[in-house]
Amino acid sequence: MSEMSRIVRTMTAIMFPFAMIYGLYVIAHGHLTPGGGFQGGAVVASACAMLLVAYGSKWVEEKIKEKNLSLLESVGAIGFIAIAFFGLFFGVAFFHNFLVGSDLLFGMVPAVGSTGANINTGGVLPLMNFAVGLKVIAGLFAIVLVMAYATTSFKEGKS
Amino acid sequence: MDLVEIIHIILPILIVASAVVSIYLKDLLAAVIALAAMSLLLSLEFYILQAPDVAIAEAGVGACLTTAIFVIAIRATKRKEDA
Prior knowledge:
The structure holds 2 protein chains of 2 kinds. By secondary structure, chain A is mostly helical.
């Protein structure tokens, strides 16, 4: 798939960082605000798909391979299930929230009632949001990338 | 009738109208844009129905990713539908 016109490419280059930052914000604040791993991952994957449509699949192929995206997706799934098993090993049960109440990452317990949102809460929930976000970004972008490669080889008559 | 109820009446009409327009258009790229507009209006409807989670997912997947896949498919084939 070839690249589009200069106008489309310039607008994509302007809009891409905003879409990326918004998606990463939705992932990182998944335990505080609406949204979470899947929604933020869908936003980031749409930003990458916008880049793919504007710049063409040859340009993207130099940056990232579809094989590495599959690897990243598997890393997300393994991270999710590994955190769940950490709950079994360090806590009492599968999916036990062993980080909450400790002085480690995301371990603060907020006061009861309506308080200001604190990013340093939630225990393992933000980590699981990161894992799900990684899996959704890699999975959805791999779908669009495979679609672009398939149409490229279809048009050149290779397959 | 307050403003939210009026929006609850207008938005479904616009959603159905854009869906019908996307059927009747012969230019496939314009039909895809009409489908994206339908998805965006649907996410707005989800938002005023107090479901911001679903609204973000709909805007990301429905309005952007499926549109990207359709645009890639149209660029590989023909743009005009056969009459």
